[in-house]
Amino acid sequence: MGISITHIDTACIILDINGYRIMTDPVLDSPGKRYHFGYGSFSKKTSKPALNIEQIGKIDLILLSHHQHKDNFDKKGKEFAKNVSRIITTKPGAKTMSNAVGLDNWENIKIETSKVPGLKITATPAQHHPWWLPEFFSGKVIGFILEWEGQKGAFYISGDTVYFKGIKEIAQRFEIDTGIIHMGSVQFRYLTGFGKYTFNVSSAIKAANVLGIQRFIPVHYSGWSHFKESGYEALDYLERNLRGIELITLGSGTEYELE
To answer: Are the CB atoms for 5 and 16 separated by under 8 Å?
Structure first.
Protein backbone atom coordinates (compact mmCIF):
# COMPACT_ATOMS: atom_id res chain seq x y z
CA MET A 1 0.00 0.00 0.00
CA GLY A 2 1.49 3.30 -1.08
CA ILE A 3 1.69 6.11 1.50
CA SER A 4 2.94 9.61 0.79
CA ILE A 5 2.90 12.95 2.57
CA THR A 6 3.07 16.48 1.18
CA HIS A 7 3.59 19.60 3.27
CA ILE A 8 1.50 22.60 2.19
CA ASP A 9 1.92 25.17 4.98
CA THR A 10 2.23 25.27 8.81
CA ALA A 11 0.42 22.07 9.98
CA CYS A 12 -1.38 21.60 6.66
CA ILE A 13 -0.33 18.37 4.97
CA ILE A 14 -1.82 15.90 2.53
CA LEU A 15 -1.49 12.29 3.65
CA ASP A 16 -2.20 9.99 0.71
CA ILE A 17 -2.91 6.41 1.76
CA ASN A 18 -3.38 4.21 -1.29
CA GLY A 19 -5.14 7.05 -3.09
CA TYR A 20 -7.31 8.10 -0.14
CA ARG A 21 -6.31 11.72 0.43
CA ILE A 22 -6.44 13.24 3.91
CA MET A 23 -5.69 16.90 4.61
CA THR A 24 -4.88 18.28 8.05
CA ASP A 25 -5.48 21.79 9.43
CA PRO A 26 -6.12 23.69 6.17
CA VAL A 27 -4.03 26.87 5.99
CA LEU A 28 -4.14 28.34 2.50
CA ASP A 29 -4.02 32.15 2.87
CA SER A 30 -1.23 34.21 1.35
CA PRO A 31 1.39 35.69 3.71
CA GLY A 32 1.35 39.20 5.11
CA LYS A 33 -1.92 39.35 7.04
CA ARG A 34 -2.30 39.81 10.78
CA TYR A 35 -4.82 37.62 12.59
CA HIS A 36 -6.39 37.90 16.03
CA PHE A 37 -6.57 34.77 18.17
CA GLY A 38 -8.66 36.06 21.06
CA TYR A 39 -7.91 37.56 24.52
CA GLY A 40 -5.67 40.17 22.92
CA SER A 41 -3.40 37.71 21.12
CA PHE A 42 -2.46 38.15 17.46
CA SER A 43 0.05 36.92 14.89
CA LYS A 44 1.27 37.71 11.39
CA LYS A 45 1.50 35.03 8.72
CA THR A 46 4.87 34.96 6.94
CA SER A 47 4.75 31.73 4.93
CA LYS A 48 3.21 31.03 1.54
CA PRO A 49 1.27 27.81 0.81
CA ALA A 50 3.34 25.51 -1.38
CA LEU A 51 0.34 24.55 -3.52
CA ASN A 52 -2.71 26.50 -4.59
CA ILE A 53 -6.23 25.13 -4.40
CA GLU A 54 -6.21 23.90 -8.00
CA GLN A 55 -2.92 22.06 -7.46
CA ILE A 56 -4.19 20.42 -4.28
CA GLY A 57 -7.02 18.63 -6.07
CA LYS A 58 -9.65 16.41 -4.50
CA ILE A 59 -9.47 15.73 -0.77
CA ASP A 60 -11.50 12.89 0.76
CA LEU A 61 -11.22 13.83 4.43
CA ILE A 62 -10.02 16.72 6.58
CA LEU A 63 -8.64 16.18 10.08
CA LEU A 64 -8.96 19.51 11.88
CA SER A 65 -7.28 19.68 15.28
CA HIS A 66 -9.22 22.85 16.13
CA HIS A 67 -11.21 25.50 14.31
CA GLN A 68 -10.64 28.59 16.46
CA HIS A 69 -7.11 29.65 15.46
CA LYS A 70 -6.19 31.00 12.04
CA ASP A 71 -2.77 29.32 11.94
CA ASN A 72 -4.65 26.02 11.72
CA PHE A 73 -7.79 27.05 9.86
CA ASP A 74 -7.65 30.33 7.94
CA LYS A 75 -10.06 32.07 5.57
CA LYS A 76 -9.16 30.19 2.39
CA GLY A 77 -8.82 26.99 4.38
CA LYS A 78 -12.40 27.38 5.60
CA GLU A 79 -13.65 28.03 2.08
CA PHE A 80 -11.80 24.97 0.81
CA ALA A 81 -13.20 22.81 3.62
CA LYS A 82 -16.78 23.59 2.60
CA ASN A 83 -16.28 21.44 -0.50
CA VAL A 84 -14.83 18.41 1.30
CA SER A 85 -17.43 15.77 2.12
CA ARG A 86 -16.22 14.99 5.64
CA ILE A 87 -14.31 16.80 8.38
CA ILE A 88 -13.35 15.28 11.72
CA THR A 89 -12.68 17.81 14.45
CA THR A 90 -13.54 18.76 18.03
CA LYS A 91 -17.10 18.79 19.33
CA PRO A 92 -17.17 22.62 19.48
CA GLY A 93 -15.69 22.84 15.99
CA ALA A 94 -18.26 20.47 14.51
CA LYS A 95 -21.05 22.78 15.66
CA THR A 96 -19.76 25.44 13.26
CA MET A 97 -19.73 23.25 10.11
CA SER A 98 -22.47 21.21 8.47
CA ASN A 99 -20.03 18.65 7.03
CA ALA A 100 -18.11 17.98 10.26
CA VAL A 101 -18.18 15.22 12.86
CA GLY A 102 -16.98 16.07 16.35
CA LEU A 103 -15.02 13.72 18.58
CA ASP A 104 -14.14 13.89 22.26
CA ASN A 105 -10.90 12.47 23.64
CA TRP A 106 -10.55 8.74 22.86
CA GLU A 107 -13.68 8.60 20.70
CA ASN A 108 -13.18 7.03 17.29
CA ILE A 109 -14.87 6.78 13.94
CA LYS A 110 -14.50 4.17 11.20
CA ILE A 111 -14.10 5.40 7.64
CA GLU A 112 -15.59 3.18 4.95
CA THR A 113 -13.31 3.19 1.92
CA SER A 114 -12.12 0.34 -0.27
CA LYS A 115 -8.79 2.13 -0.69
CA VAL A 116 -7.85 1.77 3.00
CA PRO A 117 -9.59 -1.24 4.60
CA GLY A 118 -10.25 -0.86 8.32
CA LEU A 119 -9.41 2.84 8.48
CA LYS A 120 -10.18 4.17 11.95
CA ILE A 121 -9.58 7.65 13.37
CA THR A 122 -9.29 8.15 17.13
CA ALA A 123 -9.21 11.55 18.82
CA THR A 124 -6.36 12.01 21.27
CA PRO A 125 -6.11 14.62 24.05
CA ALA A 126 -4.04 17.76 23.55
CA GLN A 127 -3.17 20.68 25.80
CA HIS A 128 -2.82 23.87 23.76
CA HIS A 129 -1.89 26.15 26.64
CA PRO A 130 0.59 26.50 29.51
CA TRP A 131 -0.24 24.30 32.50
CA TRP A 132 -1.30 27.27 34.63
CA LEU A 133 -3.96 28.53 32.21
CA PRO A 134 -7.46 26.99 31.88
CA GLU A 135 -8.45 25.28 28.65
CA PHE A 136 -11.01 27.92 27.67
CA PHE A 137 -8.20 30.43 27.12
CA SER A 138 -7.13 28.62 23.94
CA GLY A 139 -10.14 26.35 23.38
CA LYS A 140 -10.51 22.64 22.82
CA VAL A 141 -7.89 20.88 20.68
CA ILE A 142 -7.44 17.24 19.71
CA GLY A 143 -4.83 15.12 17.98
CA PHE A 144 -5.47 12.00 15.93
CA ILE A 145 -4.46 8.35 15.74
CA LEU A 146 -4.87 6.72 12.32
CA GLU A 147 -5.10 2.93 12.11
CA TRP A 148 -5.87 0.59 9.24
CA GLU A 149 -5.49 -3.05 8.29
CA GLY A 150 -1.96 -4.25 7.64
CA GLN A 151 -0.05 -1.24 8.96
CA LYS A 152 3.09 -1.84 11.01
CA GLY A 153 2.15 0.82 13.54
CA ALA A 154 -0.30 3.66 13.97
CA PHE A 155 0.13 7.19 12.66
CA TYR A 156 -0.12 9.93 15.30
CA ILE A 157 -0.88 13.57 14.50
CA SER A 158 -0.27 15.55 17.67
CA GLY A 159 -2.35 18.65 16.98
CA ASP A 160 -1.25 21.83 18.75
CA THR A 161 -0.11 20.70 22.18
CA VAL A 162 2.58 20.98 24.81
CA TYR A 163 4.03 18.04 26.70
CA PHE A 164 1.53 16.98 29.39
CA LYS A 165 0.38 13.81 31.13
CA GLY A 166 -1.88 12.86 28.22
CA ILE A 167 1.19 11.99 26.12
CA LYS A 168 1.95 9.03 28.40
CA GLU A 169 -1.63 7.79 28.14
CA ILE A 170 -1.48 7.93 24.34
CA ALA A 171 1.70 5.83 24.52
CA GLN A 172 -0.02 3.30 26.76
CA ARG A 173 -3.01 2.92 24.44
CA PHE A 174 -1.34 2.75 21.02
CA GLU A 175 1.70 1.32 19.28
CA ILE A 176 2.82 4.24 17.13
CA ASP A 177 5.15 4.03 14.15
CA THR A 178 4.95 7.53 12.71
CA GLY A 179 4.50 10.80 14.59
CA ILE A 180 3.53 14.02 12.80
CA ILE A 181 4.44 16.53 15.48
CA HIS A 182 3.28 20.16 15.76
CA MET A 183 6.16 22.29 17.04
CA GLY A 184 6.99 26.02 16.97
CA SER A 185 7.20 26.86 20.69
CA VAL A 186 4.18 29.15 20.33
CA GLN A 187 4.22 32.01 22.84
CA PHE A 188 2.44 35.31 23.38
CA ARG A 189 5.01 37.01 25.58
CA TYR A 190 3.10 40.27 25.90
CA LEU A 191 0.21 38.30 27.48
CA THR A 192 1.49 35.16 29.13
CA GLY A 193 5.27 35.57 29.28
CA PHE A 194 7.25 32.53 28.24
CA GLY A 195 4.33 30.14 28.65
CA LYS A 196 4.24 27.75 25.71
CA TYR A 197 1.22 26.66 23.66
CA THR A 198 2.93 24.04 21.49
CA PHE A 199 5.97 21.78 21.73
CA ASN A 200 9.38 23.32 21.61
CA VAL A 201 12.04 21.06 20.15
CA SER A 202 13.25 19.56 23.44
CA SER A 203 9.74 18.69 24.65
CA ALA A 204 8.91 17.28 21.20
CA ILE A 205 11.87 14.91 21.51
CA LYS A 206 10.73 13.95 25.00
CA ALA A 207 7.27 13.17 23.64
CA ALA A 208 8.72 11.13 20.77
CA ASN A 209 10.71 9.01 23.20
CA VAL A 210 7.73 8.45 25.48
CA LEU A 211 5.49 7.58 22.53
CA GLY A 212 8.07 5.16 21.16
CA ILE A 213 7.70 6.42 17.60
CA GLN A 214 9.98 5.15 14.85
CA ARG A 215 9.57 8.07 12.44
CA PHE A 216 9.37 11.74 13.42
CA ILE A 217 7.86 14.24 10.97
CA PRO A 218 7.96 17.85 12.23
CA VAL A 219 5.35 20.38 11.08
CA HIS A 220 4.00 23.71 12.41
CA TYR A 221 7.48 25.06 13.16
CA SER A 222 7.65 28.14 10.94
CA GLY A 223 5.53 30.67 9.09
CA TRP A 224 4.01 32.81 11.87
CA SER A 225 5.28 35.56 14.13
CA HIS A 226 4.07 33.85 17.32
CA PHE A 227 6.33 30.85 16.67
CA LYS A 228 9.26 31.66 18.94
CA GLU A 229 11.67 28.91 17.98
CA SER A 230 13.55 29.24 14.70
CA GLY A 231 12.45 26.51 12.32
CA TYR A 232 15.94 25.96 10.93
CA GLU A 233 17.49 25.82 14.39
CA ALA A 234 14.79 23.39 15.55
CA LEU A 235 15.43 21.07 12.61
CA ASP A 236 19.15 21.21 13.27
CA TYR A 237 18.57 20.38 16.94
CA LEU A 238 16.38 17.43 15.94
CA GLU A 239 19.07 16.10 13.60
CA ARG A 240 21.67 16.27 16.37
CA ASN A 241 19.59 14.97 19.26
CA LEU A 242 17.06 12.40 18.04
CA ARG A 243 18.33 8.95 19.00
CA GLY A 244 17.07 5.78 17.34
CA ILE A 245 14.25 7.64 15.56
CA GLU A 246 14.19 8.44 11.85
CA LEU A 247 13.75 12.17 11.18
CA ILE A 248 11.78 12.98 8.04
CA THR A 249 11.97 16.64 7.03
CA LEU A 250 9.41 17.55 4.39
CA GLY A 251 10.25 19.87 1.54
CA SER A 252 7.61 22.48 0.86
CA GLY A 253 5.12 21.11 -1.68
CA THR A 254 7.21 18.02 -2.44
CA GLU A 255 5.51 14.65 -2.14
CA TYR A 256 7.50 12.33 0.14
CA GLU A 257 7.00 8.60 -0.30
CA LEU A 258 6.76 6.96 3.14
CA GLU A 259 6.02 3.48 1.81
So the answer is: yes
Q: What are phi and psi of 206, to 5 degrees?
A: -60, -45
For residue 23, give the nearest of 66, 67, 56, 1 by alpha carbon.
56
Q: Give SS3 for 181.
A: strand
CATH class of 3-251: alpha beta
Helix (H) or strand (E) holding 43: strand 41-44
Q: How far apart are CA 210 and CA 206, in angstroms?
A: 6
Sequential pLDDT tens for the chain (259 residues): 899 999 999 999 999 999 999 999 999 999 999 999 888 899 999 999 999 999 999 999 999 999 999 999 999 999 999 999 999 999 999 999 999 999 999 999 999 999 999 999 999 999 999 999 999 999 999 999 999 999 999 999 999 999 999 999 999 999 999 999 999 999 999 989 999 999 999 999 999 999 999 999 999 999 999 999 988 899 999 999 999 999 999 999 999 999 8
* Domain spans in the chain, listed from the N-terminal domain onward: 3-251
Continuous segment of H or E residues that includes residue 233: helix 231-241
Strand order in the sheet with 12-17: 100-103, 87-90, 61-63, 20-24, 12-17, 3-9, 255-257
Rounded to 5 degrees, φ, ψ at 53 are -60, -40
pTM higher than 0.85, yes or no? yes
